[in-house]
């Protein structure tokens, strides 16, 4: 199992601290402990510089949010749960409610974790009781197979069942920092254990190259035929990274946005009418050296070709976010478990990709 990678220090008198100034004092007291999850740019995986981001995010929390984070840790300790569980709960609470015990939400979603009474989480009174909500979250988390081996944001998603699973990764450094200043458990740097971009991208590209010559079929995602987003989805899935179907959704939720000029092999390249993200109709896998691999359109087959523009190439590519637990083989099942009673997905149905029009003549890299 992947080592827990969080560094911790004790903070005396935490309960008496209030407001942003109090959190600032908390952070100053945690300096000099070395690198940990807090210094890893979680939503960028191994590609970004997240130095200090956990601290910066933590100082924006309200007094209520800090108190709730502290209570999550206290209950986790009382139940004998490892610090990874505390971090998962903090990430989920920050994503769902900004770590505030709210009395409103999507449909009947309520409380820190936006639990829905209609979905079996408990009564309105229960899900808006802080201690009940935290314990209920832990109960459902413990029922998730191999949750300890997952990246914290992925484990949070397995509990919440959100339609936007990548959101939970954003708060990984902040959650780790809050755990670190309260838990006093030594760890090692997480960033050193994340798989490199090159390793994951090469796995995705290797899978895509093995599909060369297979026919384009609208809506298909293998194994015998593909449309454009089906191919990119399955390619990254072969590298242990889950991204959604449909080109527009891959652009908005498939990973981190990177300027086209900084594209690396494995990145997703998009075309949209008028270069508009709302008009995206095609996606391809960038191979480097001004080449892409894609499933073009009906009547054609998976192929490699030079990157083209035609007035539709978007100036931004997407780099899928890495999940080190899955990419190392842990918890890499391709089938989702049956959802626990809880929050139902909140995303409206996405349209299927439209076949790409005939590719214009290849153009020089970066053509606009």
UniProtKB/TrEMBL annotation:
Pfam families: NLPC_P60 (PF00877). It comes from the Bacteria. Residues 321-368 are annotated as: Disordered. One of its GO terms (molecular function) is cysteine-type peptidase activity. Residues 325-336 have a biased composition (Polar residues). Residues 349-368 have a biased composition (Low complexity). PROSITE patterns: NLPC_P60. The keyword DNA-binding does not apply. Keywords: Hydrolase, Protease, Thiol protease. One of its GO terms (biological process) is proteolysis. Residues 198-325 form the NlpC/P60 domain. Belongs to the peptidase C40 family. This is NlpC/P60 family protein. It comes from Saccharopolyspora spinosa. The lineage of its organism: Bacteria, Bacillati, Actinomycetota, Actinomycetes, Pseudonocardiales.
């Amino acid at each position: 199992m992947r080592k827990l990678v969080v560094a911790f220090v004790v903070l005396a008198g935490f309960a008496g601290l209030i407001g942003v100034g109090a959190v600032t004092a908390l952070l100053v007291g945690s300096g000099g402990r070395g690198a940990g999850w807090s210094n890893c740019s979680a939503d960028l995986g191994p590609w970004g510089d997240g130095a200090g981001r956990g601290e910066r995010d933590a100082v924006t929390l309200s007094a209520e949010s800090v108190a709730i984070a502290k209570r999550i840790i206290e209950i986790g300790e009382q139940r004998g749960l490892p610090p990874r569980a505390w971090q998962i709960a903090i990430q989920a609470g920050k994503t769902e409610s900004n770590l505030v015990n709210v009395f409103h939400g999507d449909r009947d979603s309520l409380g820190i974790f936006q639990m829905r009474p209609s979905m079996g989480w408990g009564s309105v009174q229960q899900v808006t009781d802080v201690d009940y909500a935290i314990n209920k979250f832990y109960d459902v988390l413990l029922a998730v197979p191999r949750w300890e081996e997952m990246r914290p944001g992925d484990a949070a998603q397995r509990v919440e069942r959100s339609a936007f699973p990548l959101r939970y990764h954003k708060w990984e450094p902040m959650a780790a920092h809050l755990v670190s200043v309260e838990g006093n458990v030594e760890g090692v740097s997480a960033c050193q254990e994340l798989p490199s971009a090159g390793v994951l991208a090469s796995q995705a590209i290797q899978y895509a190259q093995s599909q060369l010559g297979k026919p384009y079929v609208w809506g298909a995602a293998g194994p015998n035929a593909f449309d454009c987003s089906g191919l990119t989805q399955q390619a990254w899935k072969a590298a242990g990274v889950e991204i959604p179907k449909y080109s527009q959704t891959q652009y908005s939720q498939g990973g981190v946005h990177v300027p086209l000029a900084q594209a690396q092999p494995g990145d997703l390249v998009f075309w949209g009418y008028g270069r508009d993200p709302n008009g995206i109709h095609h996606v391809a896998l960038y191979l480097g050296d001004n080449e892409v691999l894609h499933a073009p359109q009906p009547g054609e087959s998976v192929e490699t070709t030079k990157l083209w523009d035609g007035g539709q190439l978007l100036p931004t590519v997407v780099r899928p976010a890495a999940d080190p637990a899955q990419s190392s083989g842990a918890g890499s099942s391709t089938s989702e478990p049956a959802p626990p009673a809880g929050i139902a997905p909140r995303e409206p149905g996405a349209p299927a990709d439209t076949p790409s029009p005939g590719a214009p003549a290849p153009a020089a890299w970066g053509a606009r």
